[in-house]
Amino acid sequence: MNLYPAVAYFRHLLTAGSTAGHGVHSPYAFDFLTTVVSGKTDGNIMKHTRDLRREMLSDTRRVRVTDLGTGSVTKAGEERCVAEIARTTAVPRREAELLSRIVQGAEYRVQGKQLRVQSMEHGAWSMEKGIILELGTSLGISALAMALAAPERKVMTVEGCPALAEIARGNLIRHGASNAVVMNMEFATALDSLKKEGQRISFAFIDGNHRGPAMTEYVRKITEMGEEMIIVLDDIHLTKEMYLAWQSLVASGVAPATMETLRLGIIFRLRSLTPGRYRIRY
Fold this sequence. Notes:
single chain; alpha/beta; Rossmann fold; eight-stranded mixed sheet; two-stranded antiparallel ribbon; 10 helices; globular
């Protein structure tokens, strides 16, 4: 039994700050906390992602899972029920909705709109030429949330398991995410392919192959495909190895600012951003 997540949960609560922005001096970080983290999710996005989650939780189909990393850390390579996969590996509702708000908030800034506070930092990042990338599609719930949040942006989502990739494609099409493309590949191979194509990445969500060295390598490859971006890492508190990898990334100076939640690690690789390391109770 892996007790590390429970230990990490309580440790995080003891050291994390609120999402109200108290004591945060960076205008960008304050705005991010108060308008994105504490903001409201678009009603249409909530409806589609919650409908898809319900569909998958009641789906009795059985598929053979091909897991190229450590995946959910349980039952890799076995035949599993889709409903079980939805319960154990799909990104939780509040995290999926946060991803949509991050992507949507970035889109607002590209369009010259402000969420709340106008500052020099807000003009520092443009998603104009980059794609949205996800490593770890699973059933497509988080990909749907991001695709609907940025309908004019291409979303490339990578899934190593052929059966899950096929289900995700159908789910994304059925729920109107015509801007999302599912790549059935191993993550490193997909990143090499995208780089060879000359793709630029402006936002990335890494959710799969829960090994510290792999996560670090994916971040390295992603940062080679764009000057400015936000990278979100899932399950940083899943194992000690994952958390040590996260701490190593933070200490490496890969970005001027990072934010840590109870589940996610967020890397802000943006110009003219006030440096900061934040832990929040979310």
